[in-house]
Design brief:
The longest helix has 41 residues. The protein is an alpha+beta fold. The protein is elongated, with a radius of gyration of 29 Å. Strands 1, 2, 3, 4, 5, 6 and 7 form a 7-stranded antiparallel beta sheet that branches. The chain has a domain of 120 residues: Chitinase A, domain 3. It is 48% helix and 19% strand. Strand 3 and strand 4 form a beta hairpin. The protein is built from 6 helices and 7 strands; from the N terminus they run H-H-H-H-E-E-E-E-H-E-H-E-E.
């Protein structure tokens, strides 16, 4: 019984201590009483978010801000700009190396996937390496490379990440077959209007080594495409 009472009293002490500490911290924290206070906090919040990604020391960052406000500058503005430029160049080099390494991995994964995929039932392939699967066979005309088409589509990476979708936008896309990646130009000419295909596009028929926004280098792309009409 005495042991239970002791544990209970300890818990009461910890709860009381935490409450007092929290109250003291709130009292010390600056209050956002005016619009300018809120603006100042917003600047600090956004700067903190950027610096967190850069993994810099919060204490040293705060010292730099305090020194600037207090007129106790340890470096000149020119020196600060030089350091920022050096850091940006370093980050770009690091990101480039990381992207190149990931590109090698993507190329290996893509080749493995395509080699396995082409043996599956219902999957066809063209001499260029484009693979396709008929989901619904259309009965209309086939487009030419010079035609403009209206389609619904969804594009994803091998890991299932959707990087583009006209379905999500709720509106079909229109474009000329000469304006898109090679895999699309070739693949859509296999389709009859009203059809729905799944395309497995090698990176060399897509965005290759350079990638594109949310598409990493050397990525195999998987598209589900509905050919709605050939636009006249």
């Amino acid at each position: 019984m005495k042991k239970l009472v002791c544990i209970f009293m300890t818990l009461l002490f910890l709860v009381s201590f935490c409450k007092n500490t929290f109250a003291q911290n709130n009292e010390k924290a600056p209050q956002l009483k005016t619009f300018q206070d809120s603006v100042a906090y917003a600047y600090g919040f956004l700067i903190g978010n950027q610096m967190k990604d850069l993994k810099v020391s919060k204490e040293i960052l705060k010292r730099g801000i305090d020194d600037q406000f207090g007129g106790n500058q340890r470096i000149t503005e020119e020196e600060a700009q030089f350091l920022m430029k050096r850091n940006q160049q370093k980050r770009q080099r690091d990101e480039k190396k990381k992207a190149e390494a990931q590109g090698v991995v993507n190329a290996e994964m893509g080749m493995k996937f395509l080699n396995e995929n082409k043996t599956k039932d219902g999957v066809g392939a063209t001499p260029s390496g484009l693979q396709y699967k008929v989901i619904t066979q259309g009965i209309g005309a086939k487009p030419l490379a010079t035609d403009k088409v209206k389609v619904h589509y969804e594009g994803k990476l091998l890991d299932g990440t959707i990087f583009d979708s006209s379905y999500k936008r709720g509106k079909p896309a229109e474009f000329g077959l000469s304006q898109v990646i090679k895999g699309w130009t070739e693949g859509l000419q296999l389709m009859n209007t009203g059809g729905k295909f799944e395309f497995f596009i090698p990176s060399e028929l897509a965005y290759g080594k350079r990638g594109q926004r949310s598409i990493p280098a050397n990525s195999v792309l998987i598209f589900t495409v509905e050919l709605i009409e050939i636009v006249k």
